[in-house]
Structures are given as C-alpha cells and as structure tokens.
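In response to reviewer comment 3 from the previous cycle, which asked for concrete evidence that the modeling workflow produces usable outputs, we include below a single protein chain processed end to end. The sequence was submitted unchanged, and the resulting structure tokens are shown without manual editing.
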Amino acid sequence: MRIWVVLLLVGLIGSQIWVSAFREEAEDNEFAEFEDFEEEDAATASASHDRPTNPDQQKAAPPDTKTVTKETEDEEEEDTVVEDEDDNEFEHFQDEEEFEGFDNDRPVNVEKTDEKEVPKITITKVPLHLRTNWDSFYMEMLMLAGLTVYFINFFTGKNKNQRIANAWFSSHRQLLEDNFTLVGDDGKMEIENPGLIKESEHSYTLWCSGRLCCEGMLVELKLLKRQDLVAVIGQILRPTMDQIQIRVDMAREDMDSFVFCLATKKSGLRLSKEMQDLSLYCPERRAGEKFGVPSNMCVMSEMGEVSSTLLDSRVTSLVNKYQDMIEFMHFSDQYSGPKQTEDTATLVKLPEVKRVLIFCFNIPIKNQGMQESLDQMLPMMHLVFYFMDKVKRFRLGKESKQKADKNRARVEEAFLKTTHAARAEAAAAKREEKRRQEKERIMQEEDPEKQRKWEEKDMKRQMKKKAPKMKQLKVKAL
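The workflow returned the following structure tokens.
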C-alpha cells in the first residue's frame, strides 16, 4: 500500500511538471489567434489594392465569374432604399396639404437622407475566452486525484483495522472466556452486542469481568491510523506499530503498597515525565542488565524487594524471548493518571488513586502475517494472568512496608504544603458564603430588633479582626 501511494505521488508531481511546461508554451503563443485575424485583414486589403481602377483595363480584363457576381450585388445594394425612421418621423409637418395657407413663404430646410452620412459599424472579432486545452483545469484535476486517493485509502485502511481487531478477538476469545465470566460488556442492562466495541476507526475496546483478585480488565486496541492519508505518510517517515493496552483494576486487599515499572528506555523516559506516581515514587531509572532483562529496557521500582520478586526466572526468560512485543508494564497502588496540567495552587486535595496493572504490547504485523502475528500474542495474555495471581500473593516485608508508608506520608505532606494557600483561600470563601447566607436570612425577617443585634455582632467581629494582636503576660510580684 505504501509503495502504491509513493508511486501515485510521484505520478502526480510528474504530471504537474508536464502541465507547467505545456502552460509556458501556450502562454508564448497566446496571441496566435489575433495574428490570424491580422493576416486575414492584410490579405483583404492587398486584394482591394490589386483591383484595377482604369476603365480601359477593366474592359480589357477577361470576365470573371466572381467579379460579375460582386458587381451585381453592388448594384442591388445601390437600388435598395433604406428608410430611416428618425428622418421621416416629422415629414408630415413639411407637407403643404396638411397646413394650407400657413407660412407658405418661409423656406423649409429639408435635408435629404441621401446627403446624410450613415455611420459605419465595425464589429471586432474577439476570440473565445475558454481555450480548448486542459491547461486551465490542472488544479482541479490534481484536487480530484487527491480526493480519490484519500477516499480509497480511507476505506482500505478502515477495513484492514477491522480485520485486525476481529482476528485478535477470535484468537483470544477462548482464553478470555476461560478466565472471565463476562467477556465483551457493552454497558447496557442486557448485553446486545457482546464483543469488541468500536470507539473509532483505529480504536477498539473490550471489557471483561468476573474473575478473582481483580475488579475487571479493559483491553484497548490502539491500531495505526490507516484510514488517514496524512498519518500513513507520517508512518512512512516515522514508523510505528499497532499496540494493545491492557488495564487490570485490582481490589484494595489484593495488592500491596508499591510502584513498579518495566519499559523500554524510550517509553520509560516518557512515562517518568508524564505519570504522576512514577515521577513521585520512582524517579530513578536503572539498567535492565542488572535484573536479567534486555539492555534496551529499564526498571523503575520503589523498593528493591519488589523488582527482585516480580522479575523471576520465568518472567525474565519470557521477556528476553518476546522483547520486541513488550513496550512497558506498570504496576502501581497510587495510580492517578498523567500529571495534571492545572496549577497545584488551585488543588485542595490529593487526586483519587487506584490500584492497577497496566500492560502495553506491540503487534508485529509488519514483519509477519496477520493471523500468525496475532497468534504469537497469546503468551503475552498468559503473562497478564500470571502477574495478576503473583501480585495477589505478594506481600512486602516489615521494613519495606514502613518505607512505603513513609513515602506516601511524605508525598501527602509535600502536597499539603504546596496547597496551603489554596486551602486557606477556600476556607475563607466558605466562611464568607456562610456569613452572607445568615445575613440574607436575618434581613428577610420583619423583626428590626434581631437585625440590629446581628449588625452589632457583625460590627464587633469586624473590629476584632482589625485590632492588633496582643499577648497578655502575667508577672508575679517579688
């Protein structure tokens, strides 16, 4: 598909260059039509000059059929009388029979129509405005070609994403049904369409629930934007892969207090900057060779006990075997999503946190066939279930538990310090709103005595605020 798009773009660019060259050649000869008219006028004038004017020469010349015909037409035109409506309009005023005995001696100025010069009308031959070539429509042709390519790419890309999603669901459906009671919840009271939910042309979701040690699992297929021509061209310049992101919501009693992340170096750098929990509890990134994983990966862990327990021999062997498929694995009991873009001064309480396990896997469709690459994703789903059971059984030691509690208290204290001004302002606004409501309630009553007492009380409170604060000390007499 990419090769066809590139060839089509090269063809469009070549046609534009050819049209531009043809247009320059046409612009050089754009007055050719006027030159043809000038040549015709010159030929007519030369023919009139070559005509003999001497009567003897005319008699001596042999009779020509075209000449005789032209002379006959000239005689007919001379015999024809053209009446001018403007000249004959007032002719009845000059008739003597119409006005008998009226001003007979006054000469009447009558101009003959023959003596009047008739204006000659010359009609200029103007060439047609539109040309007979396609040079004037090359922009329209390019736009139509671009729209055609865009719609063809839209339908083909949309259908391919649909086939990928359906193939993944068909290959993993049996495994999901063996581990969950409900596979494919559409959010309605009675499930009408169990299975994948289409969020957009490149995004599909699947909700599963009904398993021990978790509240539910959300599978999101983030496919390439194959339906978008601009995104397709961007993928040629900067290749990316289809991804599957799995989020498991753990119960509070099924997960201990820790934050852990295993990711590629590129994804680890991005997550440490964007995610709130990783930036607070795991600011340090460690090389993967120390834990038996590939060198292109890094490990971020709140405590060493967590990384050594989770990255056992079974996990490390699977990660080394399918390192191209694993993008990152993020486990946290303090997950609150990306960092909030709002100013921390406007926040008055800590964001709500959840205990989650997040997995992100790559789908290697580009290197292999669709069904074969999706079948290779089954070990990744087995890895998800393995970590769900392992996290449920894992418990921190006494020292690690105390360290985790101290870290969370430290983060909460730092947050309260940064938001102290905002909380004080919110408390003041709340007190002012309460005082205003009390004043409105008193003023609505028709008891002037209560109103007077409330005003005195409010005045004393205002004076007390304005008074300087003094500390009273008691001195004992010696």
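The chain is about 50% helix and 15% strand. We consider this sufficient to address the reviewer's concern, and the full set will be provided in the supplementary archive.
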